[in-house]
Specification:
alpha/beta; 2 domains; five-stranded parallel β-sheet; five-stranded mixed β-sheet
Length: about 325
């Protein structure tokens, strides 16, 4: 199963190592996150710019202790800077990274000038975020209030998800809970409203069996629910006993077009799927399934029966990519 890939900001490392400081924050949360990393349940990295951040610390004993502690973490590269980067440690700038750097700068430090007393700190903040994006990491963790105030713009613009240590810990706790497989019962479910295989095509009356149709079994069970909308659309619900969330895979014409199931919007318990659209499901074990709506019949619009025809695929091992899985 894929694990979250997070990037620690400089303040996280400093607070984690210098716990006696009066300004240290989120120490227990940071320790818990590190424990998850030691158990292989997430990956923590820092950027090359962290050494420059710590190198300006005026307290020599603390500075040396912090620099030694950097060896705890894998280091990722960011955009190279003269007088800051070490040879072969950072990346040469290109058109993409220069645009990215400028976009992040305009969000967190608009109008930044070289004569700003905190210019070096602010540039390093930008470089941390640039390195995070370049390495395609999942969550940037920080207690920096300036960055946190602009988390919405960072998400909407360069697509950076920013969390405090407490938020990140809650996020990882949720993933860990879902990763503990639970065998889910199918007692009393009519075989006509259940398909145990991992992929196939089914059709059923969506007004029967309390609107439920089940795919898979055991920890791979998906208890989907459907209600009438029209003969060109149908409502899909995450209300089933084994379900956690449902989303429409916007832009996907086939199930194999879904290459990252987590990127869709799972914020509502009901979604309305049009003919040809793909619905993505997540069950309580954190496993993903997808259904494509092939046909809909509605007895209030001239059809003899109420019926939906679906193509479906279940991913067995916690994967998020359906691109090679929808072979029927």
């Amino acid at each position: 199963m894929n694990v979250p890939r997070i990037t620690f900001d400089a303040n996280c490392v400093i607070n984690l190592i210098d716990t006696t400081s009066e300004t240290a924050t989120s120490v227990e949360e940071l320790r818990a996150i590190v424990r998850y990393a030691m158990e292989g349940k997430l990956e923590i990295s820092i950027t090359t710019r962290l050494e420059a951040d710590i190198g300006r610390d005026e307290a020599a004993q603390r500075r040396n202790a912090l620099l030694a502690a950097l060896n705890m973490f894998p280091v990722i590269s960011t955009i190279g800077r003269w007088d800051t980067s070490k040879w072969d440690a950072d990346l040469w700038a290109n058109e993409r990274t220069v645009r990215l750097q400028e976009e992040i700068k305009q969000i967190i430090s608009p109008g930044l000038r070289e004569d700003d007393p905190r210019f070096s700190n602010k540039i390093n903040d930008i470089d941390h975020l640039v390195g995070h994006v370049i390495d395609q990491r999942d969550v940037f963790v920080t207690d920096d209030k300036g960055i946190l105030r602009r988390r919405d713009q960072l998400h909407q613009g360069p697509g950076i998800i920013v969390m405090t240590p407490a938020e990140c810990l809650a996020h990882v706790d949720g993933i860990a809970l879902r990763s503990r497989p639970r065998s889910l019962p199918t007692d009393g479910i009519p075989e006509a409203y259940m398909c145990r295989e991992f992929c196939g095509t089914v059709n059923f009356d969506y007004t029967n069996n309390n609107h439920r149709f089940l795919f898979g079994e055991g920890q791979h069970l998906f208890d989907t629910m459907w209600t009438k909308a029209s003969n060109t659309s149908i409502h899909a619900y995450s209300d089933g006993s084994t379900m956690e969330a449902v989303a429409i895979a916007k832009g996907a014409r086939t199930i194999s077009d879904v290459v990252d199931a987590e990127k869709y919007d799972f914020s509502s318990r009901v979604r309305t799927a049009q003919l040809g659209e793909v619905v993505v499901w997540r069950n309580v074990n954190g496993l993903y399934g997808a259904t494509k709506v092939l046909a809909i019949k509605d007895d209030t619009r001239g059809d003899a029966v109420n019926e939906v025809t679906l193509e479906y695929v279940l991913l067995p091992g916690g994967e998020r990519d359906f691109s090679g899985a929808s072979m029927l």
